[in-house]
Each structure stands twice: as structure tokens, then as C-alpha cells.
Description:
Blueprint: E1 6-9, H1 18-28, E2 33-37, E3 40-43, H2 44-60, E4 68-72, H3 77-88, E5 92-96, H4 102-112, E6 116-119, E7 132-134, E8 154-160, E9 168-173, H5 174-186, E10 194-197, H6 205-214, E11 219-222, H7 231-240, E12 245-248, H8 250-260, E13 273-276, H9 285-292, E14 298-305, E15 309-315, E16 331-332, E17 336-342, E18 350-357, E19 363-364, H10 368-374, E20 375-377, E21 387-398, E22 401-407, E23 412-414, E24 417-419, H11 421-429, E25 434-443, E26 449-457, H12 466-473, E27 485-488, H13 502-510
Parallel strand pairs: 2-11, 4-5, 4-6, 6-7, 10-11, 12-13, 13-14, 26-27
Antiparallel strand pairs: 1-17, 2-3, 8-9, 9-19, 14-15, 15-16, 17-18, 18-21, 20-21, 21-22, 23-24, 25-26
Domain AMP-binding enzyme C-terminal: 423-499
GO molecular function: phosphopantetheine binding
InterPro entries: AMP-bd_C (IPR025110), AMP-bd_C_sf (IPR045851), AMP-binding_CS (IPR020845), AMP-dep_synth/lig_dom (IPR000873), ANL_N_sf (IPR042099)
Amino acid sequence: MSPAPLSLWGGESQPPCLLAAFHEQAVARGPQTAVVDGARGVTYSELLSWVQGIAEGLTAAGIGPGDRVAVTGRRSAAVVAAMLGTMWAGATYLPLDAEYPAARLAHMLKDSGAGLLLYADEEPEFEVPVPSLPISGLPTKGTVDPVACRSELWTYIIYTSGSTGLPKGVAVPHSCLDTMVDWQRNHSVWPHVRTAQFAPLNFDVSFQEVLGTLCGGGTLVVVPEELRQDPFELLEWLGENRIERLFLPYVALQMLAVAAAEEESLDHLALAEVNAAGEQLVCTPDIRELFARLPRCRLNNHYGQSESAMVTAHTLTGPSSSWPALPPIGAPLPGCELLIDPLDAAEPNVGELLVAGAPLSPGYLNQPELNAKRFVTVDPTPRGHTAAFRTGDLVRLEDGVVTFLARRDKDVKIRGYRVNLLEIEVRLLELPTVSAAVCVALDDGQGSRSLHCAVTVDSGAEPLDGARAAAELRRNLPDPYIPRSFTTVAALPRTHSGKVDRDAVARTLAGR
């Protein structure tokens, strides 16, 4: 008999509805700036009226509780208002990236059951099989109250990659989003924090940026699109706009740290809180040095997935020079119960992570077979939960803190040895000129796999010498961990959300 899963509870949670929290802040902070979009500033009073006007317009268009409204357009004050206006009307918000292939967008609109598409800029060029309206065509002022919150009411649908080649939609209810927003409000460095809006609006971290800021009375500042891929310009923009809170995927944070290393002084920065989210945080020498130079700024490691939004958090403490290379993902948020399903009875604290409680999504849209595999029924937990989501992540639980180990479905075996690719990447980042590194396992066509790495190096540095790199790695890693090749590239490919595109790296290295 396999041992029962270990349980870790985040404590009780009775969060207010995020719409009520936003309304409270909007009334209290009326003339103060809520959103900065380029040269335009929108006050809390203006934003509240705009949101109410959009909700009234949606109601007039026949949209009500339970309906789905797709929204597309660049990151802007208008799209933020449309997001909140959709939720205000009781409908479910579906963000769409107009840069996606037309077939992918058509699938999302059909699969989600969207009844309306709102667009912020020009009319979409892709085929729209549902009625569409410009956001500018909806009222900009209104007075309607929000639809009464219910914990099971869906707030948004977000699409994530699917194994069939088509993205799969995930529904996220108020119970999940309200909990995350309330936690964010209570754990910010201070209540009215000035936050950069960096994440694409179809990436779930955007809800932390937008709602965690506006429901806490802060100011949301939209990052110009052209700066998202330029860490040097982004660094200057952060200072010029007195940004205090920033959410970044690890690779974007690493590139920002590399850019900061070339600055004589960082006194122009107002950063007080950086949150790493979306992929495993690695505390590289560059990142440690950045925070050594920003002693009043804290670094948080956030963990979650589209199916449950954010579920754990960990704040790194002490001198940055002492931070572990792979920091823990931390402890669960209030209302969240984590289960560790052990792989081996000898190590009951190591296993697959399951999520139960407030963060739990009702499941994937129109995917009954996949739901049966991932959203599972479990024996009653210590907190009485009987439903949980299998994350596919292997973790270790020690002293009430969870550490991410690897993806279960991407377990890599080389010559019979289980290899952790992150461990190789951490060692590569310790080499003097390496600024970023990704390691992938490629099939050799003969039934076995070999390791290959892509790296970027500091500006002006020579390409990485593969023989020397292998020799350095052998000082700390066993032979199966040593990559067969090392390729220096100008930049690592990234997804639109800013994470490393590992599939693109693998395709590039396989073609060499």
C-alpha cells in the first residue's frame, strides 16, 4: 500500500470579492491615478465610471452572468477597463492575443463559447465567428452596481498549450482569484504600490499585476511593448517611472540583472519588490549582485499554474550572496491545501504536488478525458477536500516549505541516470561570462538521448569554449550530466509571456 499524501494547509481564507475591493479603493482614492498608459493617466473615479459604463453596455448587448466575453488589443487602460467591466457584468473574461495564428484564435472563440468580442484598437484582421464591438463604442461612464459575487462564478478563461496541438481552456472562479488578490493586497511592501504592467494580458500573471494593484489602491503603469524585450531600456524606464513593484519571469529578471551590472549606480531605481513567476527561479550571480545593490528591495518566488493561478510564495531573506541557486517555492496561500503524493514509501516527503481548496479550477473546457486524469477525486484530506489538481510537478516538502524538483512528464534519463536539467543550467550560470543557459535532451535517432546546451554570453565576451565548459562542469557534476554540445547564441528565444521557449531551443539545437 502506498503511503497517504502529506498535507500542507495555508490557513483559513474569507477574501472579499475583488470587485468590492476595487470599488472600495475607487471611492476612497477617487482623484488619484489608477492607470498610467503612456502620456495618459486615468484616475480611480474615471476608471470606476468607465468600468460601470462598459458593464452597462454589455448588459444592453445581451451579456449577463455566465456569458463569455473575449477581449483583444494591446496592453492598455482600455483593455484593463474591459477586463473589469466584463467581470462587473458577471460575465467571464477571455483575453486573446491578436498576434496568435488565426486558426488558434478561432478555436479559442469557438471552444470557449464566447458570445461577444471586444477589441481595443483596430478591428481584428482574423475571422471573428461572434458579434464584435470596439471598446470605444461602449459607454465610458456608468453607475451600475456589480453583479453579486458567487465563489463558483467564473472570472476568466485562459488558454494554455495542449498536447493535441490545440490550446486548452481553463476556467478560473472567483474563489481562486479573490483569494489571490486578497493575499497580494496583504503581502505587498505597502498598500498603494506603484506596479509595472509587464505581462501579456493572456498570461495569468497579468491578473496579479492588474487586480493586485487596483484592488489595493496602487497605480498600474503600462510598460511600452517595445521595452519588454530590451532590458537596458526597461531598466531606465523603471527608474523614470518610479516603479516600486515588478513581476517578471526568471529569464527576463536575469537579463535585467545583466543590464544592471553595466550601470555604475542604481540610485535611480525605486524598486521595493520583485516577484519572479511563470518558471523556476534561479538565483544566478547576476541576480544576487542586483539585489545586493538594491538592499531595500525584496525578491519573492511565486508558484502556480493556469489551472490554479498562484498557490505558493517564498520571500528570500538574508544577504543575497547566501541565497540558494534554486530557492523554494514556499508555503501555500490561505485557503489552499497542498498534497504531496509520494513516489516512494521511503521518501514520503518527495512526490507529485496536488492542489486542493480555494485555488482549484473547475477544469478544462470540453476536455472530459483530460479532466479525469488531472482533476481527480481523492480520499478526504485533513481539511476535508475530496477534489484536487495533479500539477505534474515533483516537489520536496521540508519544515513546511515546498521546493520544486522537476516536471514529472519531462523526466530526463541519460544512460540510465535521472538528470535534472536545472542543475546543469545552474552550474553553467556560474561560469564567468555566461549570462543565460538552457539545456535540452535530444533524441539521437538510435533510441537514446543526449544533452545539448544553448547559452548567451556577456556583451563583448568570446563564445563559450565547449571543452573548457565541460571540464568546469565535471568539477561538480557526474559524467551523464555533461552536455555533448554547447552553442552560443545571440539571445534565447522567449514565449510571448517572457519565459524561455525551450521547444524553440530544442528545434534550433536539433538542426545544427
